[in-house]
Amino acid sequence: MIILITGTPGTGKSTVSKILNDKLHLENFQSTLVPVNDLIYEKHLYHGVDEEKGYKIVDIEDMCLEIDHLLEDSKDPMNPMVWIIEGHLSHYLQDADFVIVLRANPHVLRQRLKTRNWKDSKIKENAEAEALAVCTCEAYQIHGERVNEIDTTDISPEETAELVIDVINDKKHFPAGSVDFLQDLL
């Protein structure tokens, strides 16, 4: 099983993914967490840095190929694995059973990103991307109905991980488009 956890920076992807991985281990699932940003840095899957914004210019195709190699090298029908692929670019991976887009109110997101000491321009850009649902739109274009959106604004990472487990177990579905922060852009 492949679970992609994506969303704008600051929505809780890393924290929720770690909790989800721990919960799956407690339920005797063999799971592996792959933080995409770590993989990008370790394998140097970028072409340089955007000087104005400070972003690494990621080679999406190479990133997807690297993740595909990881997944391919570990396919064993006798020993099924749950893969949690976490990162704001993870939704570009073509193969997934579930795609979870974590969302947060742009006002809350701004506060979360300020604690990271990001430049105001970078915070503004990410808050606008969140209001416009950029990750959801991109994920839906690739994965369609497999996409679920979870609003993390007022719930804990533990509660969010439980909702992800409910989605995986077909107990709940949070369809793409169910979270709307567009009014927060105005």
TrEMBL record:
Residues that bind ATP: G10, G12, K13, S14, T15, R116
Keywords per UniProt: ATP-binding, Kinase, Nucleotide-binding, Ribosome biogenesis, rRNA processing, Transferase
Record carries keyword rRNA processing: yes
Keyword Cytoplasm: no
InterPro entries linked: Adenyl_kinase_AK6 (IPR020618), P-loop_NTPase (IPR027417)
Residue ranges of the region described as LID: 115-125
Source taxon at top rank: Archaea
PANTHER family per record: ADENYLATE KINASE ISOENZYME 6, POS9-ACTIVATING FACTOR FAP7-RELATED
Family: Belongs to the adenylate kinase family. AK6 subfamily.
Protein name: Putative adenylate kinase
Origin species: Methanobacterium congolense
